[in-house]
Amino acid sequence: MRAWMMAAPLILAGCTGSYEPKPLTDKQAAQLDKALAGKVAGEKVSCINREPQTNLTVISNTVLLYRVNKRLVYKNDLIGSCNGLTAGDTMIVRSFGSQYCRGDFTTTANLQIGITTGSCALGDFTPYRTPPAAK
């Protein structure tokens, strides 16, 4: 038996570890807190509509915000880290249909030099809504 065939189970075992994202920096945490101030988290959903056009805000290489309107923002904790997002690289989402969904494959690219800089997948979307005003 070839040596690589004997080593294959060990190599695959090394790929089964759990992913732990880096914690947000103080600046990133403050940006996230400001964006979600006054809003209340709802139940996570697997997909969101791409229309109306959502406004994407990069918090870190692992956290994105999709602003639908003033009252609704979705927070997405990426599966993996899309290196380059915080450096201003372009995010390319491969999705099918009219929705972004958990598991949609995402890459980041530096368009100036034409290279891919990272890859990850979209996670669940947590809606944050402004509660109705008390009467």
UniProtKB/TrEMBL annotation:
<protein>
    <recommendedName>
        <fullName>Lipoprotein</fullName>
    </recommendedName>
</protein>
